[in-house]
Amino acid sequence: MKNRNLENHNNWATPKKLYEDLNKVYKFDFDPCPLNSEFDGLTISWGKRNFINPPYSRKLKESFVKKAIEESKKEKLCVMLLPVSTSTKLFHDFILPNMTDLWFLKGRVSFIGFNTKGEKVVNGKGMHDSMIVIFDGTGLHKFWYK
User: Fold this and answer.
1) How are strands ordered across the β-sheet holding 77-83?
2) What pTM did the predictor assign?
3) Which of 6, 30, 99, 121 is buried most, with the most CB atoms less than 10 Å from its CB?
4) Where in the sequence is the domain holding 102, given as residue range(s)?
5) Among 127, 116, 112, 117, residue whose Cα is nearest residue 1
């Protein structure tokens, strides 16, 4: 059994192909939490069409989900890559009542980043399955299924 209490870094990049597939449909103009960012995406206004792969630590993930909901209410599109955790308060009290669309990705996403030993990992499988959650305040949401 995996030790889920191990310290993990929050800096993991979205696989290029996954991002490109989503970007073809949604044409993102902003990423509020890019890898190794020099700004705090929680304290600034976002673009009109946002891609968000937030840090997966509980507090930061929750903060970015709540910020995406807030930004979507300003007529913005927010497409989030999140770990599947359907038994949580975050999922039931925030994601489900506010999302426009949600789907589960087949297989585990292979993230790119550095492990706790400082070694570069190009196939870092997450401990959870992943889902795409869309909060669309633009009213122009297109369904995308692969």
Assistant:
1) 49-52, 77-83, 130-136, 101-104
2) 0.85
3) 99
4) 12-35+44-136
5) 127
The CATH number linked to 97 is 3.40.50
Rounded CA-CA distance 50/75 in Å is 12
* CA–CA dist 109, 107 (Å, integer): 7
Contact indicator for 133, 82 with CB cutoff of 8 Å: yes
Is residue 146 domain-resident? no
In this predicted structure, the answer to whether residue 136 has a pLDDT above a threshold of 60 is: yes
The count of structural domains within the chain is 1
pLDDT of residue 146 exceeding 70, the answer is no
| Burial class for 135, CB neighbours closer than 10 Å (0-12, 13-18, 19+) | buried
Tokens of 27: 């044409």
Q: Is residue 81 part of a domain?
A: yes
Q: Strand 101-104 to strand 77-83: parallel, antiparallel, or no bridges (unpaired)?
A: unpaired
2 in a structural domain: no
| Inside any domain, residue 31 | yes
Q: What is the mean pLDDT of the chain?
A: 85
User: Tens of pLDDT along 48-67?
Assistant: 999 999 988 899 999 999 99
